[in-house]
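anyone seen this seq b4? input:
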Amino acid sequence: MVKHSYDLTVETQEKLSHYSDEQLQLKQKQARVTLKDAKTVIQNTLIQYGLLKKEEQRREREERNGNKRE
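predicted toks r here
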């Protein structure tokens, strides 16, 4: 995903001055959609990370209290 994004950025830089007005608008729309999708992925990943950390902390508390769960 990161490499693909980098490759698209390089390609855009190389072709930027050759885009027609319509192509430029299309590329802007595609970039907006990609940004929106990336924000959603980040939000969901943060939620997932938070859930995992809470579970880790719960297990650590149980272990300290002698109620180890396997």
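The first helix runs from residue 2 to 15. The chain has a mean pLDDT of 91. kinda curious what u guys think
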